[in-house]
Amino acid sequence: MIQTTSIALNSKMVSALQGETVKAVCAQNINETEGLAITLRRNGSSELCYIQFGNYTFFSRNCTDLMNLEYNKPTKGVYAVMERVSVKQSGVYSCTLDKILPPPVRMLSQLHFSLTVSALPVVEVSLASSSSIDKETTLTCRAWDFYPGDIQLSWSKDSQLLTNSTRNDSLFHNSNGSYSYISNLVVSKHDWNEFAQFSCQVNHSTLKMPVVKNLTLTQSGKDKCVLCIMTFLGGTIYSLRSPVSNRKYGCKIQNMISKCSACFIFWLQYLVLKTSSDHHWVFSGGNSDCEYGAVYSAE
């Protein structure tokens, strides 16, 4: 959580990042010390915070959550303090200083400040779907919870910017006032190769430098491939010890085609099975469910 504080002294414009604490001048040069009240409002709506004070002491306070008014005796000023501000709190605020005692109530001063709350984008890149290495794979880059809505997103492969690739981008306005951006990149067989690294770069006005997220297709599914390989090797060793005609060993791997190289599997099969010269092995490929295996038959 962001814990820094934005302080606006004698300024009508206040900028902050979502999650920060904002402290802005609400009233200043208070010379009278008795029978005073200050009301804080946003966009002319109902009061957010109301205090009564006298002799430099608050004796009545009514403020909403995470909102407060503080009096500073040395500076003779009152400050509006807003904790963990959100994008929704952007707007124009007014602070009205009234003399309530003795009646009638009369306004002594009124200050305004404009608050703009920005939000850093959260970025994530993932493998959305895959049909086959021979066909295409879809990568997704998401940036969410950012404000303002202007954002730049680009894709690259092995540090080379992709400009002619098929992509589908959408910008969404969230209920909390922030924005989300989703970019789907379709990677064809021509663009895909073993150990290719795809990168999503996001740039936003709140960032000191762009955010870059990387995804390597072959490495992303390594753990699942290991399980398949172990299963296949176990079945192979068992069959070599006790040959049985027409025994089929296979394993299903979810998203095999997008995450593991089929050639790598066949290469392992070759290394293990070439030691058996008195048997004939016919390698079987896979369908859309990524089922790979080998058919054993005695000769």
Automatic annotation (TrEMBL):
Record-linked Pfam families: C1-set (PF07654)
Signal peptide location: none
Domain Ig-like stretches: 103-216
Keyword annotations: Disulfide bond
SMART domains for this protein: IGc1 (SM00407)
Protein name in the entry: Ig-like domain-containing protein
Species this chain originates from: Chrysemys picta bellii
Record lineage: Eukaryota, Metazoa, Chordata, Craniata, Vertebrata
